[in-house]
Structure formats: C-alpha cells, structure tokens
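Homework help board

Subject: predicted structure for assignment chain

Our instructor gave us this sequence and asked us to write out the predicted structure in token form, then describe one feature. I got the tokens but I'm not sure how to describe them. Can anyone check?
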Amino acid sequence: MKNLRPHRFPPLSQIGQSLPPGASAQLQRSHEEAFQEGMERGYREGYDSGAESGRQDGLEAGRAEGLRAGAEEGRREALARFESLAAPLDAVIDELRQLQGEYQTALRKEVVELVAKVARQVIRSELALQPVQMLALVDETLATMPPAREGVEVHLNPEELERICELAPDRAGRWTLIPDPRLEPGECRVRAGGREADAGCRQRLAACMEQVSAQLLPQTGEVEA
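My token output:
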C-alpha cells in the first residue's frame, strides 16, 4: 500500500495572483454575479413560498370566517322565521287567555248574583216566619248610634209592623213604631237624637255581597292569567 499524503490547496489569494492579468477581475465579477444571482433566487423563492403560504392561510381564514358568518346568518334567518311563525300562535294564545279570563269573571259574577238572590229569598222567608227579628236589627243599629235623649222612632213596612205588634207587643212598646209604605218588607229606618240610620236587611246584604265580590272577582283592569 502506497503512503498517501494530504494535499493542501493554495489559498484563493495566491490563485488570483497566479492568474493572467484581467482573469482575477473576471473571477471576482463572476463571484459577485453568482452571489447576486443566489440572492435574487433566494428572494424569489422565499417570496413565492411566503406568498403561497399567505394565500393558503388567507384561504383558510376566509373559509373559516365565511362558515362562521354563514352560520350566524342562518341562525338569524331561522330565528326570524320562527318568530314570524310563532307570532300568530302567540296572538291566539293571548286571545284564548283573554277569553278564559272573561269566562271565569262572568262565571264568578253569576255565582255572586246567585248567592245574593238566594240570600234575599232566605231573608224574606225568615222574616215572613219571624218578623220580630227586625227588632234585633234595631237593637244592633241603636248600639252603633250616640245615646238618644229623645224618643226613638222606628219606621217599618206596615204589614211587618202589624205582625210585630201582634207577636211581641212588649218589645215593640219600647220604641215608637211608625208604618212607612215606602219601605219594602225587611227594610227599616231608625231615628234617634236627631240622627237617622238604615237598619234594614238590604244594606247589610249589600255589604256582605261586596265582600264576597272582592274575594271572587278580579279588580278593575286586572286580567286573570
């Protein structure tokens, strides 16, 4: 095997010095041109690569934005469509609720009227059997009035007055009973000490039915759900 020795290449400066006149300058220009060409090629390749990458990124971003915008627009259109379809149904539901509330109110009014009618009939029947109960109403009314220094006058329906005097003359004698044809059976007016009060059944029944109406009927302007 032959002995091998490493070969040392001379530096470029020595090569340039050994070249013929003008060759060194030509070599330098070739070197600069090659460098410039490499720079331009690298710039173009980098620009083209960056442009392509940017284009792809832009396409992806545009596609994503388009999908998002399309989905949002579709959602708005679907919601608008649903609201346009639901509006008539909401109107029908509101109308049904209104009708239901009116029906319930009318039904409760009928109940109140029926209760009042039955109560009046019961009162008439009770007073027809026991007219002396009118004197208990007179006692209650006098208890709410200031004490009278003068005599007490009790105005009654003539027929009821006659029956009271027949059934309870002692109790009837405590006051001055005056027949008044303007008063219906069950009605009574009391005068004492210059004051006058209604001791009849009508105003008592009216006060009772007012409480019943307040419990059963909605207030004015109130709509039941």
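Reply (TA_rk): Your tokens look well-formed. For the description, you could write something like this. The two ends are 115 Å apart (CA to CA). That's the kind of observation they're looking for.
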